[in-house]
Amino acid sequence: MSPRLTPAPSPSRGRAPGVPRRWPPLVLGAVGAASLAAVALRDPHVPGSWGTCPVLLLTGLPCPGCGGLRAVSDLLAGQPLAALGSNALAVALVVGGALVWAAWTAAALRRRPLRLVDAVTDRRAVLGVTALAVFTVVRWLPGAGALLGP
User: Fold this and answer.
1) How many domains, in total, are found in the chain?
2) Which structural domain range is residue 131 located in?
3) Which InterPro entries match (predicted)?
4) Per residue, what are the HEC states of 114-128?
5) Could you read off the pLDDT of 36-92 as tens digits, one per residue?
6) What is the CA angle 27-67-40, rounded to 5?
7) Is 93 a member of any domain?
8) For the chain, what is the HEC assignment?
9) Rounded distance, CA 131 to CA 114, Å?
10) Is residue 52, in this structure, part of any structural domain at all?
């Protein structure tokens, strides 16, 4: 008598087996809310309250993330212009991330996958890395700090 073969389980597409599709965006949302609460409770405008950026400490030049916590704090306080002055890239990433998270959560609650991977192409990835590099270098230029400084 030959052994009975059972079909292999279908892949879960990045999810642990048995984890409902709606849980990952909800857990990420809870982590994000806790992070926002931490920024709201500990003011990043106070020097040293969140430590010092190692890149800024070693080179004297701001990294692309310098000013990001202050930008998030300003957004939470309802001051978008101050947030843009702290770190415009961080503001764009926060807004974009919130939109993607909202779409992901809505898709998960409807029990549908979010096909975000299809939207990321090689060309868009190169454009994103190029924008990050340009933002960083422009921040280092004399006088640009007033516009894009941390």
Assistant:
1) 1
2) 23-44+60-148
3) DUF2752
4) CCCHHHCCHHHHHHH
5) 999 989 989 898 888 888 888 898 888 888 888 999 999 999 999 999 888 888 999
6) 50
7) yes
8) CCCCCCCCCCCCCCCCCCCCCCHHHHHHHHHHHHHHHHHHHCCCCCCCECECCHHHHHHCCCCCCCCHHHHHHHHHCCCHHHHHHHHHHHHHHHHHHHHHHHHHHHHHHCCCCCCCHHHCCHHHHHHHHHHHHHHHHHHHCCCCHHHHCC
9) 25
10) no
pLDDT digit string, tens, across residues 87-116? 888 999 999 889 988 988 888 888 877 776
Q: Is residue 7 part of a domain?
A: no
**CA distance from start to end of the chain:** 73
Q: Is residue 13 situated within a structural domain?
A: no
Q: Which residue has the tokens 């704090």?
A: 73
* Radius of gyration (C-alpha) of the chain in whole angstroms: 21
Compute the distance between CA of residue 124 and CA of residue 116 in angstroms, rounded to an integer: 13
